[in-house]
Structure to design on (504 residues):
């Protein structure tokens, strides 16, 4: 029975590492050559570095290839061929899909895909969903506002490709989506961790429905690192009585990683479709060994309209040295994407990753899932304010909660905070990407 | 019992599919319904190539 097969592609997913590396090298040469020959943007970049396709023979040569940053893509867009600029490798007539980034880090970047690229997106997502246990018998509800952001579009097409029945949750509001899940007896869904928590909250508080009784068996999260944050994953799993899986991807890159059914505490990189390198932020050295964090430089090996070659994603990751019990040879990144180079900032001289605050807040019983962090500078001193909500029924335990919160924050982040408690439901709720960390020092 | 994957045979069939699709596309320059549907078929065939053909004949 095909549904009993563990792997979407049993050949690629279990390929011996040496062969996998050889396949990646061959594919890198091909995409580099394509970009060099078809894109004026890439050609100029590589000419400046004195590189031609014949120079790419080893992984060491790959490291000489200049990286592409998001700011460079912003710099060329809106020029000809409009609106993508000269990174476009195909005639405009072959572009079938427009998407743009969410703009979290600045002006949105436009992305062109051909129909083949769009098939490729769905193919990458199909490997993800299969690895997470989605099968043709699933009825997948997608509570996502289908729009210019790529988000769960590819998840939708991939679920169709697997043979699942897909129910698009489009413009329905949260309560209508919950009722539709119940009406259809949906078995799986996809969303940001924030929205999955928000939906569970709305089911309980607005509809009097326990979300765990709705029959959802698996949830795929993306868009934020939450599903790899143990406390957040636990909250979503408990709320929905479902297995929660993380996936990391990006508009300019593709769907490059996934958590498998064995939930090994990290994400597999789809190394048949992507080449991931980890670069030391200080020295630029490529990190091969497990346990050292750096920023991800990534190549999508088969994306054609606007190639993604050595893209500096600024995602902070580290290799996990342990093999996964699922049998895939695709390497794991430990704990998923732990932050972005841009987000990890020094406060009072201490390095702070906002995701560590999330782990603390959501690990404390009696606190709601929403929070907000505000860093400010007053004179010469910096302050860090944490706004949290008290869960219904825990109002009488605020002092005890505050004491535990201060203790855990000191332990996990080595910083002291001004803590403000708010009524449940008063902090902002998000559907797509949450913006909970506000560094006002930069705007002062 | 699971039948073993005959990847070489699969590769051969995919190549035949592609050849047929390209022939059909070449015949359909004045037949949009065929031309555009074949373009989609070719995109799907490319996914088969990524899954199968790229691995075949690859040095062990």
């Amino acid at each position: 029975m095909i549904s009993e097969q563990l792997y979407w592609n049993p050949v690629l997913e279990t390929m011996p590492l040496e062969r996998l590396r050889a396949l990646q090298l061959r594919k890198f040469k091909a995409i580099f050559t394509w970009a060099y020959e078809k894109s004026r943007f890439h050609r100029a970049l590589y000419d400046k570095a004195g590189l031609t396709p014949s120079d790419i023979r080893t992984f060491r040569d790959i490291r000489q290839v200049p990286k592409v940053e998001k700011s460079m893509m912003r710099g060329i867009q809106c020029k000809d061929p409009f609106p993508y600029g000269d990174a476009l490798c195909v005639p405009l007539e072959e572009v079938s899909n427009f998407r743009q980034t969410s703009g979290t880090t600045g002006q949105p970047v436009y992305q062109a895909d051909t129909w083949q690229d769009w098939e490729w997106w769905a193919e990458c997502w199909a490997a993800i969903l299969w690895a997470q246990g989605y099968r043709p018998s699933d009825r997948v509800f997608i509570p996502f506002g289908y729009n210019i952001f790529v988000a769960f579009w590819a998840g939708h097409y991939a679920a169709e490709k697997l043979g699942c029945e897909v129910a698009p949750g489009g413009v329905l509001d949260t309560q209508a989506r919950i009722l539709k899940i119940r009406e259809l007896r949906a078995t799986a869904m996809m969303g940001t961790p924030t929205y999955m928590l928000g939906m569970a909250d709305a089911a309980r508080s607005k509809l009097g429905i326990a979300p765990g009784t709705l029959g959802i068996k698996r949830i795929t999260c993306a868009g934020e690192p939450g599903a790899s944050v143990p406390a957040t994953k636990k909250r979503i799993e408990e709320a929905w009585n479902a297995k929660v899986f993380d996936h990391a991807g990006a508009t300019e890159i593709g769907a490059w990683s996934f958590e498998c059914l064995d939930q090994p505490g990290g994400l597999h990189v789809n190394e048949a479709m992507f080449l991931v390198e980890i670069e030391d932020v200080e020295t630029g050295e490529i990190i091969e060994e497990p346990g050292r964090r750096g920023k991800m430089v990534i190549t999508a090996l088969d994306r054609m309209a606007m190639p993604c070659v050595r893209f500096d994603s600024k995602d902070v990751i580290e290799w996990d040295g342990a093999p996964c019990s699922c049998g895939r040879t695709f390497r794991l990144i430990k704990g998923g994407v732990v932050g972005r180079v841009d987000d990890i900032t020094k406060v009072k001289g201490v390095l702070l990753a906002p995701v560590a605050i999330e782990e603390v807040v959501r690990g404390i019983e009696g606190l709601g899932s929403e929070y907000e962090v505000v860093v400010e500078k007053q004179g010469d001193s910096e302050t860090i304010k944490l706004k949290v909500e008290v869960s219904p029924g825990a109002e009488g335990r605020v002092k005890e909660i505050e004491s535990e919160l201060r203790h855990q924050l000191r332990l996990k982040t080595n910083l002291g905070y001004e803590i403000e408690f708010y009524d449940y439901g008063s902090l902002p709720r998000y559907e797509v990407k949450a913006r909970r960390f506000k560094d006002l020092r930069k705007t002062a | 019992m699971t039948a073993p994957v005959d990847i070489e045979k699969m590769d051969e069939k995919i190549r035949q599919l592609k050849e047929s699709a390209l022939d059909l596309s070449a015949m359909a320059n004045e037949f949009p319904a065929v031309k555009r549907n074949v373009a989609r078929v070719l995109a799907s065939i490319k996914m088969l190539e990524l899954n199968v053909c790229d691995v075949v004949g690859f040095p062990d």
Notes: The interface with chain B takes residues 9-12, 15, 19, 22-23, 26-27, 114-116, 118-120, 123, 272-273, 302 of chain A (CB under 8 Å).
